[in-house]
Amino acid sequence: MIVLGPDEIARLLPMDKAVSAMRSAFAAHVQGRIQAPPRAVLRTGGKRGATLVMSAALESPQRPLLVAKVVSVFPENSRRGLRAIHGTVLAIDAETGVPQALLDGGSLTAIRTAAACGLATDLLARPESEVLAVFGSGVHARTQVRAICTVRSIQEVRIFNPNIASARSMANDLSGCVPVSRGLRAVNSPAEALAGADVASVATTSRVPVFEDLCVPDGIHINAIGSFQPEDREMPGATVARARVVVDDRESALEEAGDILIPMSEGLFGAEHIHCDLGSLVLGLSDGRRSSTQLTVFKSVGLAAQDVAAAGAVLRKARESGVGARIDW
């Protein structure tokens, strides 16, 4: 069995390949080629801590794969000098049950989550999009920038975090790493981030909306990936109500996406407001944006299908290049 850490995973799964893997994953999900039981959520360490246990098996003519992932999200960890997200992925041969690899789940999750948003942006954002607004400045916010820049010619990135020092640090760290001609900069307000923006990515641990609906320009595409519990949301209900909403999976969204469930409980719309899932867009079973002024939203709570596709792509490259520490199992 091989062991792959964050740096190795980042080298083996560049963002363009990750977006391609997500395209295949969401198509396979809709086509029923992935087994994925509902994930378990364990809440410990106070009300904000959550550990998710997810598994999926992918039917493949090449090498059928099964993965089991344990990922923990503890927003208060920063007070302890710890990362908020930790994870481990075990990859298993789906035909024999033999363990194949142990992968860092935090980096794999960040890449596959961002790649799904890159895919959604490619399918829903205006082709000429140039300005990206990012809410949050953690690992997921940073990978979001890489993903969006992979599918659109982004020229300017604006980063908002109430902790302005963290936003500035993210801008400095990514400068020179992504081809953004007008640069990356921290901004002082959500309104400044969104003014004239073409795409927005919301990747925070907030439990309440991080911007006001009146600040949201027509025609923008929004990726919302930070909240994954029914009681949490990052977007105003009014924004979701006037948007064409695409989700990673309808059933999961109606169980876990507070961004959808809370405005539903407020009577702003019903379940039929969800336009379609991302896989249906990939396969051409549903249409996407209808006009340049239409507001579109991709709401994701994450699917195990993404993990098995991303892990499979990593393992194929690892075997080709001989990367990873070998251990007996």
What does this structure look like?
- With 329 residues, the protein is an alpha/beta fold.
- The chain folds into 2 domains: 2-108 and 305-326, 2-Layer Sandwich (ornithine cyclodeaminase, domain 1); 122-301, Rossmann fold (3-Layer(aba) Sandwich).
- 35% of the residues lie in helices and 23% in strands.
- The chain has 11 helices and 16 strands.
- The chain has helices spanning 6-12, 15-31, 105-124, 139-151, 164-174, 190-194, 237-241, 250-256, 258-265, 278-282, 304-321; strands at residues 2-4, 34-35, 40-42, 50-58, 65-73, 85-93, 99-104, 131-135, 156-160, 184-186, 199-202, 221-224, 244-247, 274-277, 296-299, 325-326.
- Strands 1, 2, 3, 4, 5, 6, 7 and 16 form an 8-stranded mixed sheet that branches. The protein has an 8-stranded parallel sheet with strand order 10-9-8-11-12-15-13-14.
- α3 (105-124) packs parallel to α4 (139-151).
- The chain starts with a strand and ends with a strand.
- The mean pLDDT is 94.
